[in-house]
Design brief:
The chain has 112 residues and is mainly β. It contains no helices and eleven strands. It is globular and about 40 Å long.
């Protein structure tokens, strides 16, 4: 059974940073690319970032490019998203996505 558990969210002031994690299980993690999505209150899902199976190739949405870094630790079956210079518009539930399967997300709230 595939499990994707995100963590690391919380309340942060504008300009602050957070590091999100996604612990994966139930599939061979190091064989697949994996993505971060987010969903803001009242809005649909938005793709945030993608990383290939090796961790060498990454891509980002324009909304987070230059402020976020995706990475993975294949030995730990864990995906990360370092988010810096956070803005109120980054407020959303963040979750990881493996081949269309989305796990439990973590809430990020950016507010003063």
């Amino acid at each position: 059974d595939v499990q994707l558990q995100a963590s690391g969210g919380g309340l942060v002031q504008p300009g602050g940073s957070l590091r999100l994690s996604c612990q994966a299980s139930g599939f061979i993690f190091n064989l697949y690319p994996i993505m971060w999505f987010r969903q803001a209150p009242g809005k649909g899902p938005e793709w945030v970032s993608r990383i290939d199976s090796s961790g060498r190739t990454t891509s980002y949405s324009d909304s987070v490019k230059g402020r976020s870094t995706i990475s993975r630790d294949n030995a730990k079956n864990t995906l990360y998203l370092q988010m810096d210079s956070l803005k109120p518009e980054d407020t959303a539930v963040y979750y990881c996505d493996w081949q269309g399967k989305r796990g439990q997300g973590t809430l990020v709230t950016v507010s003063s």
